[in-house]
Amino acid sequence: MPRHIDLLEKDWGNDEVPSPRKSPRQQMTTAILRRSSRKRSKPPGFSSMFASPPPSAKKSRKDAKVPSPPVAPPTLLTLPHCAISRLLLCLDVDSLERLSATCTYFDQMIAGKFLLTISFPFPVGFIKEVMDDESFEKKPLLKLSCKKTRDEFKTLPDITEDYSEPSSLHKLIIGNSPEMMDYLVFSQMSLLSLYKLRELDLVPESVKQEGRLLGQRIMDSYSNFDCSLLRHISRLGSLKCLTRLDMLVDQNLYLEQFMAELPNLLELGLTILTRPGLSKHVYLHEYIPRLEAVVTASKAPVLRVTVVAETRRQVNKIFKNSHVEKLVLTGPCTFNMFPVMERLKEVVVNLETSFLDNNCTYWKSRIDDRGLHRAGLCCVNIGAVYENCPNLERFMGVEVGMVSHKQTFNKWNTRMKKRFYDDYLQQGGSKEMKAWAKTRWFSRRPVLPMNVGYDRVFN
């Protein structure tokens, strides 16, 4: 460093102020030094001259921190393949079909390996695709649907109607003999791979024809066809794979013979359409025992019962089951169902509601008291819950899990009555509690029959 620069830096760094020349008289006094509080600025070139040199480009690249790439949020695709496969087992086939349409990965994983849904008997469009392909692969089918559609089609569209009349799956089923239907089922089922069949939907798209409910002749044809279909699937050993089953049944309830072959059901749906005006003998000795036997034999945690029409009789139906956890019932107020289900947690009752003040059709209900349904009495009687459904948490939206069964029936009934009266007021009811309980609640514990199902008949 040059000498003059070094001296200059010493001078700028010196904070002492030089004292003036002293007279001889003042030399006798002690010199007092004072430090200035004023900061002195350095020349502009001084700081740049002695500052550290800027780092080289190579050192800058070395010291610079490379920003880490942003972490992508976790998605379903980031899970391991084994975890995704496990999750897909929890979805129904309709959800799998929607998921496969979201991206290529799930399309290849789901639709690339399985045939998701197919209608039965085969629609004409599907048969045409099979004819146009030189070869086809029998992918495992997941869902078989038989909706008995009434949409008309021509089997041979290039031939005039004089030789090929329009038809429909509904007409094919009701217009042919059971033997012909057996052959149709056998021939078309040979084109399917059913060893992974998970869902079977046999409820027709409509239970009405020309504005009226299906007659007994059509119901018999539907039942014969569905029974033939179930027998064929049973022969292949695929009923044990089913997790969801939806059926249309009448007073015959042919489903009973297949219940032992359905150990893995997760959801059972029964749509009931009985013949009007059943005799007392048929009602008590055929319909009720068979219905109760089917419910008792089911191992599905979810039971859905939809009552389209049945003969109206004031007979208690006992639904006894040790597997059902959720019961969904849609039907008339006079269905008279009493649950005896030790694992039952939730009861959902769907009742008809109109804008007229004639919604409730419960037994002996007054005409001026039919605007609101009787929760706890209509369709499902909550009186049977006491000690028979100890795990019940929710009944028609009312929280009942806090009411203990470890008390007398009268105390249990009093607490239940208070909860359902509050629900009545929330729906717009205006009666006092005493008047409400007289016509909309029960005072005594329901007496249930000891024998259920076929024991009603043989004991």
Q: What would you say about this model in short?
A:
This protein has 459 residues and is an alpha/beta fold. It is built from 14 helices and 14 strands.
Task: Explain what this protein looks like in three dimensions.
With about 450 residues, this protein is an alpha/beta fold. It has 14 helices and 14 strands. The protein has helices at about 5-15, 45-50, 55-65, 80-90, 95-100, 105-110, 125-130, 170-175, 180-190, 215-235, 280-295, 410-425, 435-440, 455-459; strands at about 115-120, 140-145, 200, 210, 210-215, 245-250, 265-275, 300-310, 315-320, 325-330, 335-340, 345-350, 395, 400. The strands form three sheets. A ten-stranded mixed beta sheet has the order 1-2-3-6-7-8-10-12-13-14. It has a two-stranded antiparallel ribbon with strand order 4-5. Helix 9 (about 180-190) runs parallel beside helix 10 (about 215-235).
How do the helices and strands line up, and which of them pair or pack?
Blueprint: H1 3-13, H2 44-50, H3 57-63, H4 81-88, H5 93-100, H6 104-111, E1 115-119, H7 124-132, E2 141-145, H8 169-174, H9 178-189, E3 199-201, E4 208-209, E5 212-213, H10 216-235, E6 244-249, E7 267-273, H11 280-297, E8 302-309, E9 317-321, E10 326-330, E11 337-341, E12 346-350, E13 394-395, E14 398-399, H12 409-426, H13 433-440, H14 455-458
Parallel strand pairs: 1-2, 2-3, 3-6, 6-7, 7-8, 8-10, 9-11, 10-12, 12-13
Antiparallel strand pairs: 4-5, 13-14
Helix pairs in contact: 5-6, 9-10
